[in-house]
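QUALITY CONTROL LOG
STEP: pairwise intake check
CHECKER ROLE: data steward
CRITERIA: each record must contain a sequence immediately followed by its structure tokens, with no blank fields

ENTRY 1 OF 2
RESULT FIELD BELOW
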Amino acid sequence: MYREKRVTRRAEACQELSKQMRSTNRGYRMAKRGESVAQTRQRIVDAAVTLHGTLGPAATTIAAIAAEAGVTRLTVYRHFPDLDSMFAACSARWMSQQQPPRPDHWTLIHDPVERLAVALADVYRFYRDAQAMLALVVRDAAQIPTAQRNDNAAMNAQMCGVVMAGFRVRTGPRRRRIEAAVGHVMAFGTWESLCVEQGLDNDDAVDLAVTMVTAVVRERRR
């Protein structure tokens, strides 16, 4: 009798151990599968970033992304069912690899002209670092999803708003002229004209841009 009970306990213990091992293996397989799915998604996003920075958004097709990532087009669609979600993930991934401007730091500077100069130095540094991608994005702006264009416009509006807050001009024609000048010098196209087409370095471009804006600021004070 004692021997039979001992055999039964051993059998039950073996069954329990086998059950635990199956559960552990199942959890391991699920974890590996989740890791594989995440890695595939990241590979697709990285492929889109690469193509956006070399071919441009307009020429970046799902087929091209799939080929660059080494997956099928169906796999791309499983992860990104529409263009907006693809662009959002691509933009977030690319931006995470950059050092974007920091408007929150500009607010610590009270003198409006000095704030403008610091802001431009920060923005122009970003433009030079990200020139290749930004040039293609601006070129293909019409093909970029509306949500992404709105995000870009909101970022530009925020930067210009922080600079304009330093001038403390609330309303009227003078404010509109200063806003136009600030918006112009903060634009990527202006940096591209000054530094790429005209060959200025960032410091000279900042000095010239500040001179242009301060001329408009002082114009109405005479």
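ENTRY 2 OF 2
RESULT FIELD BELOW
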Amino acid sequence: MPTPEAQPDPEPAAPSSGRRLALVVGVNGAAAISAHVAPLQAAESSAIEVAQVLQEVCHFELWSPPLLGEQATTETVKQAIRQMVLQSTPQDCLLFYFLGHGYPLLDEAGQQQVALVTSNFDPHVIDALGDHEAALFLNWLSTILYQRAKAGSVILLLDCCYAGNMSTLSTDRPLDTAFAALKRYLANTAVPAKGTRATLAAAAPDAVAWEHEGVSLMTFHLLNALRGNDADARDKDGQVTLELLNHALRTKMPSYSFSGEIVGASLVLSSHPEYSAQARREREQAARREEREQRLRAMAAESSSILQDRLENFVGRMNELTELRQRIEKLLPTGGYLTITGRAGQGKSSIIAKLVDLYSQEQGGRERVAYHFIPLTPPPDHQVPLLRKLMARLILKYDLPDFYVAAENRAALSDAFPTLLKEIAAKGGQEIIFIDGLDQLAAEQTGRRDLSFLPQGSGNPPEGIVFVLGTRPNDTLRP
């Protein structure tokens, strides 16, 4: 009788095209070889994880639930492969993943072949009876999946010892066997031209695969790549392709082996747009924005205890408060200064604090109001932190360039301040800027306090910008 390789059964009607079909097999070991081949620790549990990633991350349709342990007999695995091949179309992509032992045996021609160890694998039966159908050999996989399958792409992921022998099948067989296989292949004119046929193997020809702390090395790296966590396996769009996966595994596994051919456009196994170049640029931009905002917030920080202390001293004065707000509203169309003067202890600071509090409630938070209370004994050149605090708050509020506060000297900041205010005015913004304690600024060598940081001259402050200043009635405002 003809073998399934030579004459497959008539195929059923083709299903919908373009499917990604996967069959996953995991076998820790077989009883017949357990005396001299120790069972693996995690082949079966890892196969479950592989199936989950193929289904949920790579969007493969599982041909069946993973075949594990006792379920994974030779005939069960072969039958599942046959049915998957028979029902595939040229538009489909087939993937077979085996996790377990590889076992070398001599075939009927006396050549070494490698069997994938299924749960009922028994080399003694094969040797005694010559029944090579009783094992899942690499050459059987090659014939069925590489030669007979009409699927456009076929990928074998073999995580076992001697898996790399897949690349030597055409050279290991005697000439008569090879010619016979070639004759059968050429005679079958129904077989279409093949696309990608690729085997990713955990071991080179005649070499062993490795487990590390109970986890297969190849499966560990492969899952990491398919999940998008290996930059070597991703392209600029965040896609994990077969070519890049092959490259990533080759760089991480000295004994890794690839055989077959990748034909046509890149085969995308999984897609991770969050790792694309565009997404990376957006993340970098967001990180830069966050770093910029943190720097500006630190620069704009004003002690809340100072404001709260002055608020606690506010008592009554509702008529004065109302009048001040009316005057501010009257100044807004043209811009200008409103100065509150009084001797120490008369409540200038508390009424300014109350104004700040009221405008904060209307603006949605104190961080959206530009204000500063000059301390009783400020250090020299206090105009520098004063300007940077005010401008940092306005930059954050209006999303303005931070070059306005890049300088650290008074002259440059004083020049930048009116320009920033004019940009706010051009946007249609209206701002009330509070500065209390001007009389506490240190006097210069001339004996006067430098107030040149306040915008002066024609058109300053611009329309929509009102300064509310607090000072004692001395010579502070004379300049």
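INTAKE CHECK: passed for both entries
DESCRIPTIVE NOTE, ENTRY 2: DSSP finds 14 helices and 18 strands in the chain.
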